[in-house]
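ugh ok fine here u go
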Amino acid sequence: MEHAGWVPGSNCGSVGSSPSASPRKVGSLRAWLPSHRAAGARAYDGTTMNFLLLPGLDGTGRLFEPFVNRAPEDASCTVARYPVDRALSYPECADLIVSGFLPDEEFVIVAESFSGPVAVLSAARRPPGLVGVVLCNTFIYRASSRGFALLPWSLLFRLPLSWLSVGVHLTGFGRASEFLGMIREANAPVLPTVRASRLRSALAVDVRPEFAALDLPVMDLRGRHDRLVLGNCRRQAARTRPETTVVTIPGPHLLLQTEPERCWEVITAFVASSAPHRT
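structure:
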């Protein structure tokens, strides 16, 4: 179900109803950021900072509602989306992002879960205006054991998503009932074969060379209770690019959805701390 005002792929300020409580703004970026300029884009003018949000495995962007609803008043969010009826490789996803979703002004990529490698590949192309990358509960090398790719995911993804699965893997049991409906709605339009293809891509991906070569500020935002992105993924990221800022806060895999206020506070601080690199 599409909520009023919610158009994935468009520029979003505050969107419609979400599972969480009434929106609470996190303050202002204006107090944090000096004017600065990145090649090929208009500089931050003290009014708006742009965030390009790259979605998880569903690819629809609908799960960003709670996060966008709580954006600072001077933050502008563009929510990207992937096709629901066609499987794309990771390089093809990056092609789609770079060709169709980049803001006209300076921006920060925020990518969760499946989209971590998309963010890395997109950033490696040095698009005009990109000033930072936030990777949230994601990976740069094989999301899990390759053996999982042998499971019949096209069939498994036809089964209804259960409260138990959401509680264990995505939100924690305390928030599973709150988010179950939204997660089902986000996945409903996506063909099971497409979700299966994305999962197999995640189980085989390796963007370590591109990640190591990134020459802009990067933050690895981690949920302490994430049960999907495990220790080896995090160690690979740390070994590949030691200068990456690592921040861990309490929360499950869907960290941006369940802890949006805290995530915005951390992201705002990261953008502020990276501003001197862009002056």
